[in-house]
Amino acid sequence: MKSLLIFSVSILFTFSLNAQIKNCGTEIDNSNIDRLKEYNQRWQDRSLSEKAYGTTTFNVPIQLHILRNDAGTGGISEADCLRAFERLNKFYINASIHFYQVDAINYIDETLFYDYNKTQMNSLDAAHGVTNVMNIYVANTVSNSSGSAICGHAQFPGGLDFVMQATSCMKNGSTLAHEVGHYLGLYHTHSTVFGDEAVDGSDCSTEGDLLCDTPADPRLSGGSNFNSSGCNYYGTVTDENGQLYDPMVTNVMSYASKECRVDFTEEQYDRILWTLENERTYLDWPTVLIDVDAYFYVMPLVDCYNVTAIDFYNASEAGDTYSWDFGDGTGTSTAESPSYIYALPGIYDVTLVTTDLLGFTSAYTKTISVGTVDLPYTNDFENGTTDIDIFNIANRWKNQVTVSTVAAGAGAYGMLMDGTELSSTSPSFKTPTTATAFDDLWNPYYKSKVSLCVNATGYLGVSLDFDKRQIRTSNDNYTNLRVLVNGVQINNVISVENSFTDDPGFTNYSFDLSAYDGTVFTLTIEGSHKYNANFGGSLSGSATMIDNINIGGTVDPTVVGIYEQAISSVRTYPNPFTNQLRITSTNVIEGIPVFTDLSGQKLGSQIEMIRVSATTYLCEMSNLASGIYLVKMGEDVVRVVKK
Questions:
Q1: 583 contacts: CB under 8 Å, gap ≥ 6
Q2: Do residue 466 and residue 384 come from a single domain?
């Protein structure tokens, strides 16, 4: 049976007031404290070997149980569950964990459990629990043993394979990830059972949540020390040493409001994976019973200095062997989650073929952008979808980036960055001013961004311009746009042209990027949105439309005639470089490349060159000082920059 975890961009979250005030019901008490102390000791005594995440993907089986009344009515919808699982996988893939459903949904039509109380856990598990999988139950409401409403609860390692969710909380975006965190060994960031963690971190490995990259947390509480409308901690209490707390308000295992919780830390990922490999080793399911399904992620772009080295995350189901084609005509791999260095920049279709134990196969193809764009660069999106393939697109949970006939300042297509939602229910927002929109718009589910790696070496007076149009709801202060270079905002936030109305048409915006002349830089356009984008032009949605992007400048007169990558047969990567430089040519390289400084002085023994192929050299440049150098190959001369 195919997994029900179908990936898409739009995910439903319902943020009700009740969901925001309910806490977690997972507790450390007399029933589990002794085994958890033993578990903690095993964690402390673990071997500090190389982390496993990023090299292999651990597929964790789940069984979904939906509780309904005796008549078979009520209960959460299958679609809402799929979206919650989708989000769960996005949280945990950075720990190389992928959750999949091993069988059809189990509908439990018993009014006795429909409004579930925590005292019913053992009887519910005995009647319906499946062995060797994580059982996730969704009830109409959930309460603790005293009858107070809670969002859900889970069993720590050593307990039952049991995770319970209230319907409203299953849909709020982070409670499922929170409870699964408990199931895989994480404690609340504000936990005090093992001691009160000091703000200075001096006891971080033995007190609090036992992790050192999760700051001490006084226990966040909306209205008393935490602003749920801005994800801001404003408490003034101090720890035992008199130091003010500075908690991580985006941590999934905190008591921040549900929509603020979007992050795990490295040590949390480490503990999750260690727990899976050492404490819940039985989480296995015969792969012959699961249809093979190929899928992979591409690791997010960190910067533009090494953009030809790409890391791939395998997230296939039921895979036994893997065959990768990196789309450049030569690169292949049979590794589970490989890394690959492309010789040249470009757009590549990467294909993974996954084969299961019975020999059945599944293929998945993703288009990726590799390397930099050279100046001058223009994009009017008239080629449709292929024109956004060059961008590194970071869609947050509710947003998407597409090409659209509506988003066109001239011609047929433009780039559409919109916020989509499948429900009219939205979280409460702190109304921002235009100048501080992205500071106040704390909720990251409503942002989309696209990035380009731009190679401006050899150019002066670099500039950017594009056409934009925005549509919005009549009272929507959230349709905003900004431009960043290397992660730094370079302009005031751009809002709609006139308050309370859509932009009537496209407006051209220009930006001076001369501060980045002669460099390789990351250019980012980020949009922030709310509600459902209405492509018909009415005022019921919001979106940002981009068209006719131009990035240009003038060739640096000091290198006129000796360097123009766009027409040269020679390419160098990365450029700027740190220690190693790769030189490639579209033709066979005759002889050895010659390096000089700008005065023409040859560098000679300071560089070690290895001929990788007839068209490629790998150069070790660690002995060179930072600066600008020239590489001469026949008639071609290329300028390179060492950081």
A1: 570, 571, 572, 589, 593, 616, 617, 618, 619, 631, 633
A2: yes
Instruction: State the CATH number of the domain containing residue 312.
Output: 2.60.40.10
Number of H helices, E strands in the chain: 9, 37
Instruction: Kindly state the percentage of the chain with pLDDT values over 90.
Output: 48
Q: For the chain, how are helix, strand and coil distributed in percent, rounded to 5?
A: 15, 35, 50
**CATH number, position 220:** 3.40.390.10
CA distance 198 to 238: 9
| Closest-CA residue to 15 (of 423, 540, 419, 441) | 423
Q: Which of 242-256, 355-369, 406-420 has the lowest mean pLDDT?
A: 406-420
**CA gap 204, 22 in Å, rounded:** 28
Q: Which of 323, 349, 368 is the last residue of a domain?
A: 368
Contacts of 339 (CB under 8 A, 6+ apart): 309, 310, 311, 312
Q: What is the pLDDT of residue 242?
A: 96
Out of 225, 251, 278, pick the residue that ends a domain: 278
> How much is the pLDDT for 519?
86
Q: Are 443 and 15 in contact (CB under 8 A)?
A: no
**How far apart are alpha carbons 321 and 358 in whole angstroms?**
11
Whether pLDDT at 20 is above 50: no
Q: Does the pLDDT value for residue 560 go beyond 60?
A: no
Domain membership of residue 511 as a residue range: 374-555
pTM for the model stands at 0.74
